[in-house]
Design goal:
Number of helices: 17
Structural class: alpha+beta
Helix content: 25-40%
Shape: globular
Radius of gyration: 25 Å
Strand content: 5-15%
Order of helices and strands: HEHHEHEHEHHEHHEHHHHEHHEEEEHH
Largest sheet: 6 strands, mixed
């Protein structure tokens, strides 16, 4: 009997025989060829042709951001499976919140104002709202290290000597199932759900429109899909196309676009300046992944688990989870290693597009100029940044009288913009070291620019009236202190007098030297002690 038990156990201890397709790319296509036969469409009339809709009276618009106490938070990732770490399934540790900009958006508890709520302060009225949102969860960008990792696995698997054992035995039959660039189903769902939530919170402001709203996005596929999914959730699946105007701004080199300003800021695309954070993060990776390399390499023969490949494996966990719902790469790494990965992303963001990069404020400048223009109902008349003079000079494509503004952008641009806005509380514990994780750090990329991130400016009147008197900002539901802005004083609710905020923004705009920081020939300071996103004067 004992011998039988041992024999049954042996295959699970032995190396997994590598298949010839291990690491190969798998692509599915839907709808199938020939399935879009229009000759049968007449058999399936739409609802307007069928009729018999029944009663359709509408109700009042919701305003949950004024009335909803307690506030409803984003706390789960349904329908994705919540991954575990190598420490086990019983831990309360949430792996998904340690993926940096690859984390699904979650409600941030506090940015230093623990008593502040996203619900507007008692006695105040809501006059307008400005939403800047990131696209939803996507596949990796084209040419990323993940597809190369898969190719390397495949190249090794077809040779003699490739064996995968233990926790890595799944690699013997693993295939690469990720596309590139476009939204995943979860990414589409997130933006639709955000649209629904935004209607619940701010729908009452629709009563202030005299014409259809203009919302903006860029021309990249995932940006358009994010904007449309948000609109379908905010308005209605059947009517959204006629409920608003969707402005799509070209995202391409040499096209001015405040939602993709890196295309007109050459220094943001240079290896030694724009991607300085990659170098800093790599230094840290060699420290935090050393134990993982020692632990996992003996399980894989015929393939060298370099530090960069281990980073790709952590990224694979995040991307497979948001694309396929689950990933076997997740529980290869300990909680400490996931904390290290989070900090790896923090370093990339801080030094690439955050307070530690000299082009960050310049890239965020154009949006700040547009925000001030909207807040003051004054057209922009100085074109010294990434603003698009053709579009922003028109009251059709850049209206200044909307109670609701919605703009879709990228993760790095949200980071640039909060840097340009001078949210100094986020930079309070910088610059970030590359040899350890500082305790109680203020800059955490998963809280700033996760998938479906939301930066919301609430324009308020306190006490409630038709004339706005104050402004405050929520970043992924966390209220942000505005004390870094000249004229804004400490406030437990994050409020700043609107006139003071506008004055402080004019001052900040004057500080940012777009021409120099984006175009001048300079090198990164050594050490890089920048904490405000501008090249030192």
């Amino acid at each position: 009997m004992l011998a039988t038990v041992l024999l049954l156990a042996l295959p699970f201890c032995a190396a997994e025989s590598a298949s010839s397709y291990a690491g190969s790319t798998v692509v599915d296509s839907y709808p199938p060829p020939g399935a879009t036969n229009t000759t049968v469409d007449a058999y399936f009339p739409d609802a307007s042709q069928v009729g018999y809709a029944g009663p359709t009276p509408t109700g009042a618009e919701p305003a949950a951001i004024v009335t909803a106490i307690p506030f409803s938070k984003v706390e789960n990732i349904f329908p994705l499976s919540r991954p575990n770490s190598a420490d086990g399934a019983d831990s309360t540790f949430n792996v998904t919140r340690h993926w940096g900009n690859l984390s699904p958006m979650y409600s941030v508890e506090s940015f230093g104002l623990p008593d502040a709520s996203p619900v507007i302060p008692e006695g105040c009225g809501l006059n307008a709202v400005h939403l800047l949102m990131r696209h939803g969860a996507r596949y990796p960008t084209s040419g990323s290290g993940l597809s190369q990792f898969a190719s390397d696995i495949h190249a090794a698997a077809v040779k003699e000597g490739f064996n995968a054992t233990g926790d890595l035995k799944f690699l013997a039959t693993w295939t690469y199932k990720l596309g590139a660039e476009i939204l995943t189903p979860f990414g589409r769902q997130s933006l639709f759900s955000n649209g629904v939530a935004f209607r619940y919170r701010y729908g009452q402001l629709l009563n202030g429109f005299t014409d259809l709203p203009v919302f903006r996005t860029t021309s990249e596929d995932r940006m358009v899909d994010s904007a449309l999914n948000f609109a379908a959730g905010f308005f209605d699946v059947r009517t959204y196309k006629t409920d608003y105007h969707q402005e799509i701004i070209i995202e391409e080199n040499n096209f001015n676009n405040t939602l993709a300003p890196y295309d007109v800021c050459p220094n943001a695309n240079s290896e030694d300046i724009g991607y300085f954070g990659d170098t800093q993060a790599s230094t840290w990776a060699n420290i935090y992944l050393k134990d993982a390399q020692t632990r996992l390499q003996p399980m894989l023969q015929g393939f060298n688990l370099t530090i960069s490949r281990l980073v790709y494996m952590q990224q694979m966990c995040a991307y497979e989870t948001v694309a396929l719902g689950y990933s076997e790469f997740c529980d290869l790494f300990t909680e400490e290693e996931w904390e290290g990965f989070e900090y790896y992303n923090d370093l990339e963001f801080w030094y690439n597009c955050g307070p530690g990069n000299p082009t960050a404020a310049a890239q965020g400048l154009g949006y700040v100029q547009e925000l001030v223009s909207r807040l003051t109902h004054t057209p922009i008349n100085v074109w010294n940044s990434s603003t698009n003079s053709t579009l922003d000079s028109s009251n059709i494509t850049f209206p200044l009288n909307q109670p609701i503004y919605v703009d879709a952008t990228h993760d790095v641009i949200i980071s640039d913009i909060v840097t340009a806005l001078n949210f100094t509380s986020l930079a309070a514990t910088g610059p970030l070291p590359t040899d350890h994780i500082p305790p109680h750090r203020s800059y955490i990329s998963s809280q700033i620019a996760p998938f479906a991130s939301q930066l919301v400016a609430q324009v308020l009147s306190c006490p409630a009236s038709e004339e706005p008197t104050h402004i405050r900002f929520l970043l992924n539901d966390g209220v942000v202190p505005l004390t870094g802005i000249h004229g804004c004083t400490e406030d437990s609710n994050g409020l700043c007098a609107l006139a003071s905020f506008i004055s402080g923004m004019h001052e900040r705009i004057g500080e940012i030297n777009y021409a120099h920081d984006c175009f001048a020939n300079y090198t990164m300071p050594n050490p890089d002690n920048i904490i405000d996103g501008r090249y030192p004067s």
